[in-house]
Design brief:
two-stranded antiparallel ribbon, 9 helices, 2 strands
Length: 228
Amino acid sequence: MPRTKTEKANTDYEAEVERVETGKKPGTARQRARWGSGGTKNPYTDDDYDELDRIFKALSSDLISSGGLTTKQDFILQNCAKWTLEMQKATENRAFDQAKKLNDLIQSNLSSENLRKKDERPAEALHIDSVVDALEKAGLLKDGKQCSPDKMFEILFGRPPKYAYTKDAAEKVLLSIINRTRSNDGLPEFAVLPEEDRLEDELGEFAKEPNAAEKEAYVKMGLLRDKR
């Protein structure tokens, strides 16, 4: 059941007496560092600090869920939380003109950075420079050159790619491509893949054992598995 103004005032007075007697400061160290003291005339109470945290959470929830706050947005929302607390107190004291002025100040600051839901604007057209910068920061581009498909897979999915075929099967395909190119150029074909063209499987991406489809392909094509 909500407390009446008299009950709240009595509780605040009792808490203040206890605080003076024990030397305990209102709020937590984090709250005092974030919100300040509230001034000597009307210093913040424990309830005030908790209310400031609640107001800020309510004001910032949409932005945080959609990617987070900038430093400027965080600063503006802190001020708006403080003014909201003042507005609540002014309303409780029936100082409605002061409450309206504070509300206008809050709305003006929120609208200045499109921090209200109704102020959201359609996404602006992306500039090519910003796209390139974002791709380079993500590691997908370097000096204007695209990273390898395997590296791209690792960046996007957080793990190296895994292949259903063995390293030997991949090298057989590579040998076939090289030999087709040599044949087109009138050069003799290689019987085996040159050492310098062999694949390195440092990340363990290839299957350790051939699956049924790979075994069947080797039989049909008369291929022998390289044991190296």
